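Lab notebook page, bench 4
Experiment: in silico fold of construct C2
Operator: M.H.
Input chain length: 140 residues
Purpose: comparison with the prior construct
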Amino acid sequence: MVGLPSKAIRTVLRWQMLATVVLAGMAGWLAGPDGAVSAVLGGSVSIVAGMGFAGMASLSRADSGATLMAGALRAEAVKIILIVLLLWLVLTTYEKVVVVAFFATFFVATVLFSAAALVRETERDTGSGNREIRLKSDER
């Protein structure tokens, strides 16, 4: 995931991928191969939209509060547009979609993306003049 703007976003995208794999396994067990594929597609919609958000956010300048807010709104607009387009694409092209598996995985992955705001990056001096950034979720 080279080029994504923050460790928080990369961490949340990993969580989304893990949740998608777990839910695809469950859907495959309950509904067969079409359930697994539907779950993967549901998670993928949210993951791709999240990557679009992160990409757009990384292109935005943060010179002032106004430009920061404008960049955040543009990134959110890209995410929403991608979600709508990808949902439409899957639902119109994949005839054997298992709707429950698709939307359940989409919902879980989307909620996990919202958790990016809860993942904090902290800096500390390692003593050698270098700074180390740690995520609060990595501290044990």
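Observations: The radius of gyration is 17 Å. The beta strands are 121-125, 131-135.
Next step: discuss at group meeting.
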